[in-house]
Amino acid sequence: MRICLIASSRFPVAEPFAGGLEAMTHALARELVDRGHDVALFAGPGSDPSLPVELLDLPDFEPSEAAMGDVNAPSRHWMAEHHAYLSLMLALTAGDQHRFDVVHNNSLHHLPVAMARSLSVPLVTTLHTPPLPWLESAMALAPDASSFVAVSRATAQAWSHVVEATAVHNGVDVSSWRPGPGGGPAVWTGRVVPEKAPHEAIDACRLAGVPLVVAGPLSDRAYFEEQIAPRLGDGATYAGHLDHAALTRLLGQASVAVTTPAWDEPYGLVAAEAMACGTPVASYSRGALPEVVTPGAGVLARPGDVADLARAVLEARDCDRAAVRRHAEQECSLTRMVDEYERIYAGLLDRDLAA
Known about the structure:
Layout: E1 2-6, H1 20-34, E2 38-42, E3 54-55, H2 65-68, H3 76-93, E4 102-105, H4 111-114, E5 123-127, H5 133-141, E6 147-150, H6 153-158, E7 166-167, E8 184-189, H7 198-208, E9 212-215, H8 221-228, E10 236-240, H9 244-253, E11 254-259, H10 269-276, E12 281-284, H11 289-292, E13 298-301, H12 306-316, H13 321-331, H14 334-354
Parallel strand pairs: 1-2, 1-4, 2-3, 4-5, 5-6, 6-7, 8-9, 8-11, 9-10, 11-12, 12-13
Helix pairs in contact: 1-14, 7-12, 10-13
Keywords: Glycosyltransferase, Transferase
Organism: Nocardioides oceani
Pfam families: Glyco_transf_4 (PF13439), Glycos_transf_1 (PF00534)
């Protein structure tokens, strides 16, 4: 198939990934190409040049000082993102769409959904987050113009008041996330931001008497300085923003991976990555984590309860690492995810042919 993938323009689709959305889009693009599909990728500047896909050209735009001087002017970042998606969608409606059989939108922007009706090829949007007001607005005006997939049943339920979405769990490449021996410290990975609450992972592991390594991008430096830096030491360390190889080694050596969502986590890709390395997960039972971390692969704790998370950390370390790895291979693999997306693409094409 000829597939146009729309990624987030906010962060590059490249290692080290800014978050799960970029990691998922990168893996999806590579796997689709490896399966023989003709893929074109729209992504932000700095995206991985080794991807055997096309980065769609977008013209630069700088709003005038007069325009930005308006009392209601949005930020320059907002304008750059808006211009990028408007340029893409106008190019697709002007004829570029005929290069494709299907458009798969993995962005969080409203314009691909709002302008889906102007395309002659089907557009499917994957919902990677809880509801967003701009996206709800686009869906309200064009409810039947595109199809929707959610990264978990929990995320599909969160959007159910607006649209009906099919749940397709994200997947990780289990051939590159390799199992390790374990036995080392606990590990927390992800964006270092308040809604991920790594400070609670430090508190829980300290309470459990288990050393912890925190790794991930400092997406909110003020939060890091206020909540993380003062907690470092006494068994807690920060390893930085690691690339795939270093993160795989770290997870493979860990005795347990800790996940502490302070929001309704849409999927929990970091848990899948850890389990692919054979490392069990101790996590708050929130959002999609109960779908991802099943009994035998980890232990769930009451959301926000640090003492209960300390219990989960100690219990999860006793999980059988081989069983954890098998769970990841069966339920969290990239192969399974792309199989499901291929069926969705084919179903959309069959529906269009029948129309």
